[in-house]
User: What shape does this take?
Amino acid sequence: MSDKLLELDDLAVHFHVGSALRGGVKTLKAVDGVSLDIKPGECLGLVGESGCGKSTLALSIMGLQPPTRGRIRLNGHELAARDRMETARTVQMVFQDPYASLNPRQTVRRTLADPLRLHGITNKTEVEHRVMDMMDKVGLRRDRADRYPHEFSGGQRQRIGIARALILQPKLVICDEPVSALDVSIRAQIINLLLELKDEMGLAYILISHDLGVVEHVSDRVAVMYLGRIVEQGGWQEIFEDPRHPYTRALIAAIPDPFHRADAKVARAKAHGEIASALNPPPGCHFNPRCPMKADRCVNEVPALEAVADGHRAACHFRNSAG
Amino acid sequence: MNAPLLKVDDLHITLQGDGATFNAVENVSFEIGRGEAFGLVGESGCGKSITALAVMGLLRRPLGLGKGRIVLDGEEIQAASAARLRELRGSRIGMIFQEPMTALNPLSPVGRQIAEMFVLHQNASWNEAMDRAEDALRQVRVPSPERRIKDFPHQLSGGMRQRVMIAIALACRPDLLIADEPTTALDVTVQAEIIDLMAELCAAKGTAILMISHDLGLVANMCRRVAVMYAGRIVESQGAEAIFATPRHPYTKGLVDSLPRLGERSKRGRQRLREISGVVPSIAAYPSGCRFNPRCSSATDICRSTPPDVTALGNGLVRCHHHE
Assistant: This one.
């Protein structure tokens, strides 16, 4: 047994897109050399914008997208060697859209009971007991068990989604934008619930989100992705108080700031232009066309993810100079 | 000069459905001065977008205009003819929508879609209009506009498309720009740039903004005054900074307290987020009295029986029986 729940070692997922007849086949490097680890009971915030590869990374960890290169180890065992059912007992996922990710023709009871039966729990009383217990845990009323998803509000549907993910008592839950499809006044309920369940059941989370407020609130450690690579990772405090990669600073600077918390330094950190296509990323550091600190070296040389402090690493040639 | 550019007075919008008529928007009143940025904030279904549609004269069945007046620069919009409204839209009121891909014509090059504005509203020739379209693209900082005017919307990224939308909306220097969730479909770093661009261009042209969003922070950042809508009514309106510092309506207070704020955890450690209990009511089942009462922690009998009136407070207003 290793003390790491999940280890990713140089994980890469490449897709081949296009056709040989029209313009040739191109390689899309959705995830390109990502190394991460998660300890039991820890929450890792994974931040990045659309197309940066965070959802592909999640699918790989779930065993739904075989990696092109690199290794995924769960509980010290190679994921490739694991049985699909065994993986499902360890890792589960909560999806963004609670309207699309529940089967509209299944009652809550069935949505929650099916995974149990599939995993060999056939005793009816036990199934019933565990379903009811889980409904209590996520704050759904027991008498709603025989209702269908359309009879619930968005926040309650997300509770059903969370219950489904937790019914097999996994060790790791990947939450892919768990609150961004919900009404603003409902989000706090779900965030609080996720945090309570984490303490109660000793869960580890990978929280995928672009909402830095939520990530700072929930995460123990944070990893920032840009075009398939991790550009910075560290404890939440280091990432938010002493960000070293200009992209991390740009993300923080992009948050609306009605309190005038920001000084001129943050204002200058804003990124310009748009995210490059993952099919044709810029050479060197992928962020260089948008970076306010760009130098020749950034175009010619890919910066490695190197340590700034203990547990805090950034992939920037200028990680040690102030923004 | 002191008359507001836009005055919405006691606006009601009705919704027909299931054999009944609902009031989707009730008693909504606000004013926007020339060149002022005004924000309308609320959750989905609160009526903010249809309020904007009403201002543009774009309500279609099953939505309809009930009581109330909408006055743009002395002209009553609710009484204007369809032809007059077409003239106003584009020349005096510009619009930006949430999803630029569905708002742009997929079969027409973007340059042509901008040029159309000059041809339709300013009697320009197509040649002249195309030149001006190129300038307009340059103003919204689309790189190499001379090539981009020939591109179709699908060839542009989301941020670029929204820039094209801004170029179209501001082409004829309108008096009012209505931006309905202009950046919700965009990535955060791109959002920041688009918002800055919008604010800058509107300031340069003296265009007033009616910004509609669910993101209180974003709106408060951009606008001088903000109104918060809940279930079809404006529950509070204040200066943008005051709304965070001293929210007066329990709903606004709840919203401000419920969102994790960047930097809070370093200062105070992780606090449990304050929740607003319950869910947003559906239009068919609005509670009687104050519509927020089932979710409000300080609700009393009067809240359940009587809808609160608007109370003017300093620079704003609040609609609550128990406001402080």
Summary: The radius of gyration of chain A is 21 Å. Chain A has a mean pLDDT of 89.
